[in-house]
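User: Hi! I'm a student and our assignment asks us to look at how structure tokens line up with a sequence. Could you show me two examples?

Assistant: Happy to help. In each example below, the sequence comes first and the structure tokens follow. Example one:
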Amino acid sequence: MAITKIWPVKDSLNRVIEYAKNVDKTENPDFLNSDLYQVLHYAADENKTKFERQYYVTGINCAVKTAGQQMQITKERFGKTGGILAHHACQSFKPDEVTPKECHAIGVKLAQKMWGDRYEVIVSTHLNTNCLHNHFVINSVSFMDGKKYNERKTEYQRLRDTSDTLCREYHLSVIENPSKRKRNQGLYQAEKQGEPTRYALYRSDIDEAIERSMTMKEFYDYLRQKGYQIKGKIDSCALKLPHYPRFTRFKTLGEAYSVLHIQDQIYRQRGPEVRERSKKPILFFVPTPKKLQIEDILGFGEEYRKLRSLYRFFCYQLGIYPKNKGQISMSPYIKEEVRRMEEISQQTIFLCKNQIDTYEQLKEKQEEIQTEMEDLISQRKKLTNKMRRAEPEAKEHLSRQKRALTDQIIGLRKDLKLVQSIEKRSLKIIKTVETTYKTMMSENIKKKEKEIAR
């Protein structure tokens, strides 16, 4: 299974080429672990003797070492040195599905089929993550006729189709029906870091509603009681809280939260006796709440309600309905306020712990954290380079040091995020205070003018 992406580069051609050719990411581990490398490393003094290492970097229609210069010469030859400088594409594979050699071979074939007849391309395979992936740097100007590469939707589709064809040739898995919906990156990153989000709030309330419902009507009514607004039918069914501007479809929250899947969950959690007796299909549409009940119209409301209450009591006792385990249901508004309260408490603890009283001290702390973090990242990079050439025993010791540095960097990143959130909140408060002060002053001036006019 390979995932493909492509985007334009407008800032620096050399930067993206150097990133693609990064030695720390493209070095061949098979060569480093081979007998040839061990012999050369043992016999050669690195201060006096140099030997070539093998890297997974290939140039198509250009040399790897002078790729940037060749691409720039092509641009100057046709007088197209501005605008988009290059295009950067990526092809990522499933973990442990391909070897580095296969990954690079697929990447080279993909580049040759896509751009090999008209453009200069650098293909590099990065090995520094669990998912092996290829990077492609494509010159924006063709060396054949000087025409610029147009990154259209049809081109991206061709890239995806070509990648899938090569994956099938190498007997790799392929995403047969890829989703065309773009994921919100802000929400994705927040969920990845474990932060509470709007989607997480919706999911928790839906899970709670499913546990406490025997029918879809009870499910929708429970969400309405918590303050949700619901509209639509089946695939278009959506919900939202009043303080959010837009509705969110159930299926956007994930496949497990589609209306059909929710209906299936509610149906399965009902007792077997109820499932056997239930012949009528569950309603898909969102029912509107009725103020007047039918039993009141027929004139036997009180007796009917008593019978219904008794029936529900026995259903709970027999286990047909799920029993309330004493969990307190929190309103989504309260959940949102709790999240904000926890965030503010963390910020307050940080300010007290570091004795920060002014905005200037906050900025100094931010610079201090940034400097310390960059220093630790530099130390970790040096340890990574040492680990490549170290003996197994020394490598284990260096690995422990690297893990310790990583833990420190993670802590500093959290502190930096706290500082940035405090700064953002502080600036917002300052702006609010200034606006309030100006409003009060303008009102006072108007009052004085009215008094003078009298």
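Example two works the same way, sequence first and then tokens:
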Amino acid sequence: QMEHVEWHGFHHHDTIFPLFLFIAGISFPFSYAKQQLQGKSRKDIYKKIIKRGIILIILGIIYNGILSTFDFAHARYASVLARIGLGWMFAALIYINSKTKARIGIVAIILIGYYLVSLIASPDAPAGADSFSHDGCLEGYLDRMILPSCPLEGGMLDPEGVLSTIPAIATALLGMLTGEWVRRKDVTDNKKVLYMVAAGIIMLIVGLAWSTIFPINKKLWTSTFVLVVGAYSILMFALFYYIIDVRNLRKWSFPFIVIGMNPITIYLAQQFINFQYTSNQLTNGLVRQFSEILQPTLKDICYITVCWLFLYFLYRKRIFLKV
């Protein structure tokens, strides 16, 4: 469960990326309302949304190593951060220009439309390869045609490629719909939780049923992946919303707050700072005192602890990377 699946299906590890995008979506209705209260013009809000999307794309390119090569012709421009930036940006633009029912309709149109487009096989698909296969999908064909370089998946597609970014907009919109629901003042907290659980169950049933003809696939970000992982995201959010906001049990969550205040920081920092070396130097002697079966798990715990201490230092100094 701690590895990505090769193609169809999903493990727990595949839920992390879309959950981050979903949570970014949840936060937007709150920030949008705050900006409106501050009297910011629509033009200023547009500029901030687009600026954030562009910054995330640039950070993604830096994460991919462009500064170490300056090889722009063969650089990988698609990235996790770019998908978050583009998915969130377009979802935010849709959100501020539509009402709730229209947003739900747009999510449905995106998911159904993406399914219909995904039925089209790549023009250069090998004989016998279907449109949902690694070598036959239209997503891969467009990546090879549009992106300057397609270094992943044997050069066949980019898992954060062009066409598969469109359903990621739906993932962000699902988060925004959830954030909008939580902001409502005319609904009790318990009712909010119940409706979120109900929505999660419905999305899970629809996603699993649909997956019999449209496989769940993270690398293609299929519509069924959006629904199933969206269900997981909203159910997890409902659980922690109930524990933290409804039951007011908050003290235990402090370690996660430290991480949550600087998520992009730690994502980028691991690319430039050798936390593994620091962890090994500080803890390898202790880890070796335990059985070989336990050692890999203990190494992971120590690594996470070192990363957390780095974030805790930033937290104490009130240093936060905000995009």
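Here is something you could point out in your write-up. The chain has 13 helices and no strands.
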